[in-house]
Input
Amino acid sequence: MATRIGVEVSIAVADAVKMCNVDVVAAYPITPQTHIVEHLAELVANGELDAEYIPVESEHSAMSACLGSAASGARTFTATSSQGLALMNEVLYVASGMRLPVIMAVANRALSAPLSIWCDHSDMMSVRDTGWIQIVTENGQQVVDNTIIAFRIAEDPRVLLPTMVHLDGFNLTHVIEPIIFPEQAEVDKFLPKNRFPLPLNPDRPVAMGDFAPPAIFMETKWAQEVNLRNSRKVILQVWDEFNKIFGRQYYPVEKYHSDGAKVLLMTMGSSGETASVAIDELRDEGMDVGQVRLRLWRPFPFEELREAIKDADVLIVMDRAISFGGPGGPVASEVKAALYNQAKRPKVVSFVISLGGRDTTVAGFKDIVRKGVEIAARGSKNEYEIYGVRE
Amino acid sequence: MAKSENELTWKDLEIGCIVTAPGSARQYESGTWRSQRPTYDFNKCIKCGLCALYCPEGCIGQNKDGNFEADLFYCKGCGVCARECWTRVIKMVEEVE
Output
C-alpha cells in the first residue's frame, strides 16, 4: 500500500528522485531549491541511494555535468532556481538540442535585481524558449507525481527531451504537506530503464553537439521542434498511464467549475489553490465563474486551452512575471496568441500579480475577478493590469 | 551518410544531429565561403611547402608535378598562403561566377 505522510515538499521531491533510482545528481545549492539537493546528497552519502552526487562549483557546471551524464545514458537529475537557472541558460539549449533527457526541478523564484529569494515566475519565463518540456505544479503531491512522470516522459524514445518540473519557491518547497508515496515496485513498473539510443560508448563512438553547417542546421532545429510538439501526445499518454497505476490524473489544462462558466480565471502554479477558494466563494455568492489551471507550459497545450475556454465570455489570466515593455504577462500573451484566430473567443484580461513573493489572498483573487469582469465590459487602454501596487 | 548534406531531410538526421561515423566534416564544402581564389605561377615554385604549413584549412597538398596547390572544395580564400609564399607564386584573384 502506498503510504501518506506529512513531509516537506523539497524532501519529498528528493525521495521521489530516489524512487526513480537516479544514477547521477549534479547540482549547486540555491535558495529555495536547497533542501532538495541537500537531501539527495544525504541519501547518497548514507548509502540509501546508489548514485553519483557531483558537487559542482556553479549551476553552469551543474547543467554541463548533467549533459555528460545523460549523454552516457545515465538517469540524470538536477535542481535549481532563479539566478541559478539564469546561469545555466546557455547549457539548457545544448541539453535540448542534443536531445538529452535531463530532469530538473525548478523552485520558481524572482530574478534579481533587487535581490529577492521569494517566488514568482520570472525565472521559468526566461527559459521558455530553451526547448525543454515544462510541467507546472500546484501542490506537493503534484510535484512528487510529476517528478516521477518527468523521467518517464523525457526518456521515452519518442521524446528524448529534457524536462523541468516547476514548483513555486517557498509556497511549495518549504511547506509540509500530506503526500502519498507510491510503492517502489509500482514506480519500477511505471518507469523502465533509461535506454538512450546513441549513448557515449567507447565501443561505438559518436560525436554529439557537433558543428552543423547552414545546409542542415534548420533541419536539426525543425526535428527538435516537431519532437517537442509531438511530445504532447506522449505526455497525455503517460499521465493516463500514471492514473491507471496510481489513481491520480493530470491534464495540460485542468478545469474547476469551468464548463459552461461565462467568466474564467486562469492560474498557473501554487496560487491556483488560493484562487480556487476565491472561485468557491464567488460561486456561493451567485457569480457564474470557473477556473482553468495551466499544468503544461511547454509544449503549449493549444487544443486543450481552446476547448477549456470555449464557453467563456471573459478570461482573466494571472501572470507572475512581466515581459518588460512588452504585451504584459507571458501567459496572457500566449493565451491571446492561441485564441486570436478563433471565430469565437473570450475577452482576455491580463493581470500581473504576486511578484517577488507578494501574496495574493482569497480576497485578492475575488477582487481581481470583479475588476477583470469590469475591464472586459468597459475596455482598457492598458496592455495589462498590475495588481496590488501602491499608488 | 549516403546522402550529401544538401539532400538530407529533417527525418534523415540522427536524434540531436549526433554523428555516428567519422569523417563527416569532409563533406562540408567550406570552399563556398570563398570570395577570392588563389592562382599560381608554378614556374616560381621552389616546393618549400610553407603555404601548406600555414594553410588554416589544411587543404593544400602537392599536385602530380609536386607543386603545392589548394583543394578548392575546401579553400576559403583567406589568402594566408599568398602572404606567406617566399617566391610569390600565389596571387589572389576575385571569384567571379
